[in-house]
Amino acid sequence: MSYISGARSVPDSQVRIASTKMDGIGHKKAIQVRSRLGISGNIKMNELTKSQIDQMEQMSCQDHVVHWELKRGERADIERFISLSRYRGIRHQDGSPLRGQRTHTNARTCRKQIRK
């Protein structure tokens, strides 16, 4: 089992499916990376050589924001909302739903943290 940009790739899965498991890489970006490298989407991950996997990881990290950079950016956005005392930042701090969901009878998982 190999890791590509922090995502575990299952050896029996096809390249077109395994490449979308990386954070920040969707269907279209996976197709772009594969076409640049000349890799077919129907090949299994265990049939790729180590150099092909390294090229795939390097190409995806070079052109797109993936894994830890993406997560760091999301966390920075949340911290910015909190520092500006925006509504979304306050809801993040409280652990409440952000996007107008009902909280009287739902949102049990986020309210569970508050009760303890």
- The secondary-structure class comes to mainly alpha
The value of Rg in angstroms is 19 Å
Number of strands: 2
The parts where pLDDT drops under 50 for at least 5 residues are: none
Number of H/I helices: 6
Amount of beta strand:
5-15%
What is the H-and-E element order?
EEHHHHHH
Morphology: elongated
Summarize the biggest pleated sheet: 2 strands, antiparallel
**Physical arrangement of strands within the biggest beta sheet:** 1-2
What is the arithmetic mean of pLDDT? 85
Distance between the termini: 39 Å
Q: Portion of residues in helices?
A: 40-55%
Q: Can you walk me through this structure?
A:
There is one protein chain. This protein is mainly alpha-helical and 116 residues long. The chain contains six helices and two strands. A two-stranded antiparallel ribbon has the order 1-2. Helix 2 (27-37) packs across helix 3 (50-63) and helix 4 (67-83) crosses helix 5 (87-94). The mean pLDDT is 85. It is found in: Mitochondrion. One of its GO terms (biological process) is translation.
Short description:
This protein is mostly helical and about 120 residues long. The model has no long low-confidence stretch (mean pLDDT about 85).
Helix/strand layout:
Layout: E1 2-4, E2 7-9, H1 15-18, H2 27-37, H3 50-63, H4 67-83, H5 87-94, H6 108-115
Helix pairs in contact: 2-3, 4-5
Task: Sum up the structure in keywords.
two-stranded antiparallel sheet; 2 strands
